[in-house]
Amino acid sequence: MNNLKIAGRQFKSRLMVGTGKFQSSVIMEQALNASEAEIVTVALRRVDINDDNDDILNHIDKNKYLLLPNTSGASNAEEAVRLARLARAAGCEPWIKLEVTPDPYHLLPDPVETLKAAEILVKDGFNVMPYINADPVLAKHLEEAGCVTVMPLAAPIGTNKGIKTIEMVKIIIENASVPVVIDAGLGLPSHAAEAIELGADAVLVNTAIAAAADPVKMAEAFKYAVQAACLAVSACPAPVSNYANPSSPVKGLLKDIL
């Protein structure tokens, strides 16, 4: 597969990593290095963007990673827009992962407020990457509004259940003209590989790495899973068949000559 291209910018890695839930910023930094990710998302409510010595930001090399602020915690479009503008005013690049999750228990994104915020932020010059339910209609509306990706959930945030929205994800991928990033619910490297094999352009993983007993080793495992899936897709997998197809030839055998 070629490099991932978002808003005219190219990335070698198709694995994006979040920065929440790590036991320490040092372990987070080690995991980021092991993942070889190039896009790192950080919740604006958890950091002080204006403080270069913020414990989390101090362990993220801005020359190495695209720092992707996210509006996690915003309950409506107004809050999300305010957070995005604060990040840009503090010197962040105009990239934003848009999250609007008014329900504190399931953290499911609000489709109406997400679209409203996306329309405002796109007009405001942001490269908007919206986190959404696996809703093909909403995905198309967001694309038409000017979002640079769509980011449908595989399962609710932090559940590690894998791709439970597979049929809707397939439709989103089939109809999208912007990169599709599977976000939330991926719990194992095999889940990430499945997403890429389905046709997703990238995956974003946080809890599965940060909450592992060995986050650094898990980050490396996700890296290899995504790389392996990309290689497999590039190899053009053999077609699926409903009937057995012997791997050894059945013609030209001795019984055919006799």
From TrEMBL:
InterPro entries tied to this protein: Aldolase_TIM, Thiazole_synthase_ThiG, ThiG
EC number: 2.8.1.10
GO MF annotations in UniProt: thiazole synthase activity
HAMAP family given in the database record: ThiG (MF_00443)
PANTHER family: THIAZOLE SYNTHASE
Native source species: Mucispirillum schaedleri ASF457
A GO BP annotation: thiamine diphosphate biosynthetic process
Protein name as catalogued: Thiazole synthase
Coiled coil: none
Compartments, record wording: Cytoplasm
Gene3D superfamilies, per database record: Aldolase class I
Keywords, in A-Z order: Cytoplasm, Schiff base, Thiamine biosynthesis, Transferase
Keyword Transferase: yes
Binding site for 1-deoxy-D-xylulose 5-phosphate: 158, 184-185, 206-207
Catalytic function, reaction form: [ThiS sulfur-carrier protein]-C-terminal-Gly-aminoethanethioate + 2-iminoacetate + 1-deoxy-D-xylulose 5-phosphate = [ThiS sulfur-carrier protein]-C-terminal Gly-Gly + 2-[(2R,5Z)-2-carboxy-4-methylthiazol-5(2H)-ylidene]ethyl phosphate + 2 H2O + H(+)
Quaternary state and interactors: Homotetramer. Forms heterodimers with either ThiH or ThiS.
Active site: 97
Tagged with keyword Methyltransferase: no
Known role: Catalyzes the rearrangement of 1-deoxy-D-xylulose 5-phosphate (DXP) to produce the thiazole phosphate moiety of thiamine. Sulfur is provided by the thiocarboxylate moiety of the carrier protein ThiS. In vitro, sulfur can be provided by H(2)S.
Listed pathway(s): Cofactor biosynthesis; thiamine diphosphate biosynthesis
